[in-house]
Model the fold of this input.
Amino acid sequence: MPNSLKPLELNPLELIARRWQPSAAFVRRAALATVVMAVIIVVTGGAVRLSQSGLGCSTWPKCTPESLTPTAAMGINGLIEFSNRMLTYVLCVVVGLFIIAARARHPHRRSLTRLGWAQFWLVMSNAVIGGVTVLTGLNPYIVSSHFLAATALLTVAVLSWQRAGEGDEEPRDVVARPVRQLAWLLVAATGALTVIGTVVTGTGPHAGDAQKVHRIPLDWQEITQLHVDFVYLVVGLTVALWFMLRAVKAPAAPRRMVGELFAGIALQGVIGYVQYFLGLPEIVIGLHMLGSTLVWICVLRVCLSLRDRGPLQEDDPEAPVLSEESGVPAPQAASAGSR
Done:
């Protein structure tokens, strides 16, 4: 009989779901926390590179061949690199909390838990890429893939945040197809801008370590000019999308988000020019990396706002939840299973 299963025979997440019912607001906050942590990981990873601490720990997964943690002789660089590694564990905790909350929420939404697990595996894969980065002596191509993997994590985190606040109906477009196509073109152009930005990093002077590090054999100024050209393309697409949304009388939410995106791009452009004319100061480059994550979040939110999946089902978290196996309240079902 299904209801004769003992607690120890159940999935741990199922056991938690039978005893804890988080509110929809809690799940949304947990999803937002994964977005915040994904941004922090990008910014702190940039701080490691900009402080020339990329090889602060000489190997991986240990910090040195003899020690798991940095030694006093390694100085501040070893501490910075090791601290960034430790943030991965904090990120895992936050992602784990989101997975547990999404699984425990009634009714169970498989789409949310799948997005949570996708984040977990992206974190694990990026940890491995980070280790390869150290073992290859900060190979610029691996460094670029490390940043792009972090951007993929941020993308899934934003999607999780969006899905945690909407229903599960079939997506319904709120604008005409040409508008959606323009929005996807904006996403593609911004993604290309991000990729080119990693090439700029790979050719630029901040290699991540004070020692001589291999760089991408391209002209830095030419790649930077290409990066600027794509900035103008993204600005043009953003302005075009704003006018098109007004022309078709789109809902207020997409128009507001496009306005926020334009403000973010404008601020990011100012930071970009400041860092160029001031000779690439580290603090300004760090702000530019933060700005890149915020622009990407805005772009994704614009695209996601152009479809509707209905309202989120807001259940009373204090109400008893029926067990799928026995049809009785979950705490009783757990007791029945243990007898």
User: Anything to note?
Assistant: The first helix runs from residue 12 to 19. Residues 119 and 156 are 6 Å apart (CA to CA).
